[in-house]
Amino acid sequence: MKAIQISEPSVMKVIDIAEPKMGDDEVLLKMKYVGFCGSDLNTFRGGNPMVKMPVVPGHEVGAEIVSVGKNVPEGLKPGMTVTVNPYTNCGKCASCRNGRVNACEHNETLGVQRWGAMCEYIALPWEKVIPAGLLTPRTCALIEPMSVGFHAVSRAQVTDIDVVLVIGCGMVGMGAVVRSVQRGATVVAADIDDEKLALAKEMGASYTINTMTEDVHARLREMTSGFGPDVVIEAVGSTPTYQMAVDEVAFTGRVICIGYAKSEVSFQTKYFVQKELDIRGSRNAQPSDFRAVIHYLERGTCPVDRLISKEVKPEDAETAMNQWAENPGKVFRILVDFQ
Ligand SMILES: [Zn+2]
Ligand SMILES: [Zn+2]
């Protein structure tokens, strides 16, 4: 069967690999659409330390069930449209012991620590297969990255009295915008791209700030009667945005960290103390976050077509990736069509 492989930085080719064999506790899936994640882009650029090449990337899946093993519960049937939970959990580490399986110390995400979903078929344990109701497989490819944003909002314990600043309006940041709005918060979306900011507004943000052209501090003060945002969600992973999060958050606020910063970031730790901050990491997503995103997408209010920047055949994936690498700010998601 066809698979897409990254063998070295900037080289992505279609290769032929064996079809997977399905176990008794597994489900065999036919990929329909698989989205490229920012982490796949990092792998392609050679900047993902968690990946050992060659690797088949991809973990944002819209698929159809082909067949099910004999121990698989009845809820999963051939023909169903599904997405997948692409993480593993060991069951033994501290995170797993606390039920926070999304932050398993030994997690292996599809397409990162193990070969991923950019191929025609995969077999997965049935627990990782999530029915997607009436959503199309194309929409399903958006579920995982949005669920990461949803999870961050749950880590932040956002309520309707909060002003939430979301820094970075990619797919994950958009998920955080949507979930914060659903919880009744006032949302401020920040990004360097005006198109993304316009879309964040459509998805419910009350205010937007272009961090390249506007005075972020002054705007935030003006929006919050001088207090600063109660919650800041960092969904970029850069030094200035991490520092912005700690500097701008209100006294006794919460800072939620999703982005992976590539280098060390230094902070005035006095703010941690003076402001009595809660600084919390947010990693991947829990099964309930996936369900919440599916529930949201089923309502049909999400501008799905604008979140899908491009659809390509496997043979054209390398060209699309190069274009994304050249202009990372302009792309939400590129989907590969494996139908
Ligand atoms: Zn991802
Ligand atoms: Zn674990």
Give the structure's gist in a few sentences.
The chain is an alpha/beta fold. 29% of the residues lie in helices and 24% in strands.
Task: Write out key terms for the chains shown.
about 350 residues, alpha/beta, Quinone Oxidoreductase, Chain A, domain 1, Rossmann fold, 2 domains, seven-stranded mixed sheet, six-stranded parallel sheet, 12 helices, 15 strands, about 30% helix, binds zinc ion
Total domain count: 2
Oligomeric grouping of the chains: single chain
Note the total helix count: 12
Structural class: alpha/beta
- Which ligands are bound? zinc ion
How helical, in percent, are the residues? 25-40%
The CATH fourth-level homologous superfamily of the largest domain:
Medium-chain alcohol dehydrogenases, catalytic domain
- Would you state the CATH class of the largest domain? Alpha Beta
**Averaging pLDDT over every residue, what do you get?**
96
CATH topology of the largest domain: Quinone Oxidoreductase, Chain A, domain 1
Portion of residues in beta strands equals: 15-25%
Please give the CATH architecture of the largest domain. Alpha-Beta Complex
Report the major sheet.
7 strands, mixed
Strand and helix order? EEEHEEHEEHHEHEHEHEHEHEHHEHE
Number of strands: 15
Q: What is the global morphology?
A: globular
| Contiguous runs where pLDDT drops below 50 for at least 5 residues | none
Radius of gyration: 20 Å
